[in-house]
């Protein structure tokens, strides 16, 4: 249970980084490459919604089971409907990747160097998605499901 909580806290931290650093920089920057301007939803999908759910709801719900880890499956079952938001994220991902590839191929090296750190968001989101998949596999194979 402690590993699950640590992983969820790390995931929330990674999502926070994506939203509060990368998305905020994207929203407030004049250095955004022309091909990305006005395409925040395509680039980031519903990442902010995912972050808010994990930060405001799911982490706290998991923490309630820290003393009764045998019942943690109930948390996943109760909130399973919210994980549908990953369907939207995954459906958007190919379009987001294509957009990034197009911009990277078309942007000048100067702009690419300036904006390069902001493109790191994909790494953090992919890592988080792996965590969610791992958690669902764990719960699915767990004997503690309702």
Explain how this protein is built.
The protein is mainly alpha-helical. The chain has one domain (2-141): Dbl homology (DH) domain (Dbl Homology Domain, Chain A). Helix content is 73%, strand content 0%. The chain has helices at 2-28, 40-44, 47-63, 73-79, 85-106, 109-115, 121-141. Helix 1 (2-28) runs antiparallel to helix 3 (47-63) and helix 1 (2-28) runs antiparallel to helix 7. The protein is elongated and about 55 Å long.
End-to-end distance: 18 Å
How many individual domains? 1
CATH-defined superfamily:
Dbl homology (DH) domain
Under CATH at level 1, the class stands as Mainly Alpha
H-E string? HHHHHHH
Throw out a few tags for this protein:
Dbl Homology Domain, Chain A, 73% helix, 146 residues
Topology, please?
Layout: H1 2-28, H2 40-44, H3 47-63, H4 73-79, H5 85-106, H6 109-115, H7 121-141
Helix pairs in contact: 1-3, 1-7
Offer a concise description of the structure.
The chain is 73% helix and 0% strand. It is mainly α and 146 residues long. The radius of gyration is 17 Å and the shape is elongated.
């Amino acid at each position: 249970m402690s590993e699950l909580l640590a992983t969820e806290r790390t995931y929330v931290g990674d999502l926070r980084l994506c939203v509060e650093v990368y998305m905020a920089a994207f929203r407030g920057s004049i250095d955004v490459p022309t091909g990305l301007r006005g395409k925040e939803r395509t680039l980031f999908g519903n990442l902010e919604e995912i972050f808010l759910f994990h930060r405001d709801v799911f982490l706290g719900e998991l923490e309630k089971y820290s003393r009764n880890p045998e019942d943690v499956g109930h948390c996943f079952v109760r909130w399973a409907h919210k994980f549908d938001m990953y369907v939207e994220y995954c459906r958007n991902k190919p379009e987001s990747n294509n957009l990034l590839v197009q911009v990277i191929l078309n942007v000048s090296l100067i702009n690419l160097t300036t904006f390069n750190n902001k493109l790191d968001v994909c790494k953090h989101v992919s890592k988080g998605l792996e965590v969610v998949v791992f958690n669902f596999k764990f719960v699915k194979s767990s004997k503690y499901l309702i």
